[in-house]
Amino acid sequence: MKYIPLLLLSLLVLSFECVKDKNRDFKVLKTEKQVIYGGLPGSPVVAHYSIQVKARRDFQIELDSGWADGKIDQLFVSIDSFHSDTKAELKKGEIVNLYFDIKTESEIGGGDYQYKVPGSLDAKPPIELKKGILIRYSGGKHKYLTINDISILEPIFGQ
To answer: How many CB atoms neighbour CB 127 within 10 A?
Structure first.
């Protein structure tokens, strides 16, 4: 009888799960996906992912890749309305816009001279990703940022 409270306490302690490692580099403010359908024959379908994050500390970031829907493509940071880059110097509290596009393969031309424009490459993410997107970067305390909460905007249809 005297071991029952000890047994219950040990069962309670063992039932707790570890808290997943929180990203110490960024706080995700908003993530959006918008699909763009080209209007011309042979135009690729592009899924544009836009991620707005807030830096939690000062550091220099170097962006690598973004994974979504089993495909990979280059990740960029918006410097201003006309410029983007793969590197940026971030200050604590600064809000930054990251983006990448996942494109389908497209064919241009006709007859015997078909020209194929490659889309985003098929790639398996380096860490387990059940749904959502994954971005890889360097320069921070972490190497990956996984985002599961994505707002889907209305698609754009080309004319």
So the answer is: 11
Both tokens of residue 87?
């590197």
Residues in contact with 7: Cβ distance below 8 Å, sequence separation at least 6, in sequence order: none
Phi/psi for 96 (5° steps) reads -125, 145
Write the CA distances from 52 to 97, 114, 150, integer angstroms.
5, 39, 11
User: What residue type is assigned to position 70 of the chain?
Assistant: G
Q: Which of 150, 149, 148 lies closest to 131, judged by CA? A: 148
Q: How confident is the model at residue 145 (pLDDT cuts 50, 70, 90)?
A: very high
- Closest C-alpha among 61, 45, 51, 60 to residue 158: 45
pLDDT digits (tens, 9 = 90+) for 107-137: 776 666 777 778 899 999 888 888 899 999 9
Please work out, in degrees rounded to the nearest 5, the angle formed at the alpha carbon of residue 33 by the alpha carbons of 69 and 48.
80
The greatest distance separating any two alpha carbons of the chain, rounded to the nearest whole angstrom, comes to 86
Give how far Cα 30 sits from Cα of 24, 56, 79, 137, Å.
17, 15, 17, 18
- Is pLDDT larger for residue 10 or for residue 120? 120
